[in-house]
Structure formats: C-alpha cells, structure tokens
Amino acid sequence: MARASRRNPRPGAAFKFIEAICRPLLVVLVKRDWRGMENVPREGGVIVVANHYSFFDPISVGHFLVAAGRTPRFLAKAGVFKQPTLGKLFRAAGQIPVYRESRDAALAFKDALAAVERGETIIVYPEGTMTKDPNLWPMVGKTGAARIALRTGAPVLPIAQWGAQEVFAHYSKKPDFFPRKTLKVTAGKPIDLRAEFGPEVTGEALRTATEHIMDVITGMLAELRGEQPPAERFDPDAKPKPSTGTGTETSAQNAADSGAQA
Questions:
Q1: Closest Cα to residue 223, out of 95, 51, 64?
Q2: pLDDT bucket at 101, cuts 50 / 70 / 90
C-alpha cells in the first residue's frame, strides 16, 4: 500500500477541501454516464489528454478521475491563479499554472515533468484552449502532451467527454443545472507513445504522436456523441483562404475575418 501511495500521491488538505465541496454537489446536480474507468492506471505517472469545450468540463473529468482513485493536476491558464482566493486554493491543491508568452512559459512544462516522474496524474488539454470549432469537435492539437510522454515514458490516457456544454454553454459562465444534465465521460486504453513512435523527441515524432492523440480522442468523442466528426480538424492558426475576385476584396475579407475572430 505504501508503494502505491508514493506512485499516486494522496491529495493534500486543499484538494480534499475542494473535493468535499464539489463532489456532493455534483452527485445532486448532474447525472453521470461513465465508461472505461477500468482503463485508468491505478498507480504510476500518467498524462491524461481530453477534449475541452466548456468551462465546466474540467470539473466533469476531474470528478471522473477522483472516482477512479487518481488525484488530478490540471495545467491551467495562469489567469485563473491570479484570483486572490481561488488562485491560492488551486496552487495549494497542486494545480499547475501555464504562463504563455513570458519568461515563465517553460515552468509549467518542468512542473508537469516532475509531477509525472513522481507518479502523479496530470491533465493536459492538447488543443491548448477551449475548442473554437463551431460544432465543438476537437481542434488541431499542440505537442505539449506528446513531449511530456516521450520525455518520461509515462502512458497517455485519452479521455472524451460530452454534456458539460449543457450545464455551461460554449464560452458561457452562466450555469444551467435544471433539469439535471448527463455528463458523459469515457476513458480509452492508455497509449505508450514511446513504443509507437520511438524514444527520440524530434519534431516529426511530436507532430505524428500529437496527431495520433487527436485522432483517438476524436474517434472516442464521435462514438460518445453518435455523430460523424468533420473530415478536417479546425485549425485556429490557419490563414483564411483567398476568395475569388480582386486582391482588394480578398484583403478586406481577411481583415473582416480577423476582426470577427478577435
């Protein structure tokens, strides 16, 4: 038992406080459709990758993982940690702030590596942010999760989830709990990226491994939703395709598109 405890560290007081508040409320407020819990590793470091489409879905996947016996550590935007009370609570609970476009940007990666090597459970949203796909399908992924997996050799646990958008609509912060909504969460079999793509952390390996991760999550989500995903994943960084007509018209359209996305 002591060995398992070292590999999956027990939650501290701050995390237990959050769990004591959230878990009973979730049991009352939402219904659960959980699948694949037997695929969650019981010990050892693990990198959880999941689709992200609502402000509420981190609570949904966190609830699932806690019930599976894992203590989740989310990589979350640094802005969340700037809130006086919640920020201190999240830090004390072991959550990892992600600083973008700053000198501290590499800290989250180092913290995530260290956590996995200690046998902890980190949650990475490989899209990097909430999806901007109009139908809430996963976007093109970023390479962070694959990089951590190839560096540590830890398994990647794919999770697809659906239903949280009925509680908090896409990009909305206004909840709608009634009537009770069903949160669907399914965990796939752990993926050994080193075995599939080799131990070397090259650009090609990272891109291929990331694409594989996104394929798996999207396929699981399609099954969960009972729908067909788009043939091509939404890419928020893709440049608008030129329209027919004069160059002036194209430039004007591109400017309009950029303004709409902002």
A1: 51
A2: low
Query: 142: pLDDT confidence band, cut at 50, 70 and 90?
Result: very high
Cis peptide before 179 (omega within 30 of 0): yes
Amino acid at 197: F
Using a cut of 0.90, tell me whether the model's pTM lies above it. no
